[in-house]
Design goal:
5 helices; two-stranded parallel ribbon; mainly alpha; 2 domains; extended; about 100 residues
Length: about 100
């Protein structure tokens, strides 16, 4: 991911922001206390937690209704699709055949 961002002109020193709609995930990444419910979390989570601790990534909360990635992963109503498309910065071009 870093190589793609570098190719797009994103400077190497910047922290990558990861938007999550699960506030428990963000809290657990900041306070890695093991609870009965969190024992099942696999090694991939610990990798992300270490990246957050090192400042490579920053986990931020984003409401479910504003998850831009849904435009590529879910069937959406037209209004939601248009809203997420606008958040992506993609505009509609009419008249192209």
């Amino acid at each position: 991911m870093k190589r793609i961002l570098k190719e797009l002109g994103h400077s190497d020193g910047d922290c990558t922001i990861v938007m999550r709609d699960n506030s428990s995930t963000i809290k657990l990444s900041k306070n890695p206390v093991m609870y009965g419910r969190s024992k099942h979390i696999d090694v991939r989570f610990h990798f992300l937690r270490n990246l957050a601790k090192d400042g490579t990534i920053e986990l931020l909360h984003c409401g479910s209704q504003d998850q831009v990635v849904d435009i590529m992963t879910k069937p959406l109503k037209l209004e939601v699709f248009q809203k997420l498309r606008k958040l992506l910065g993609v505009c509609e071009i009419s008249g192209i055949n």
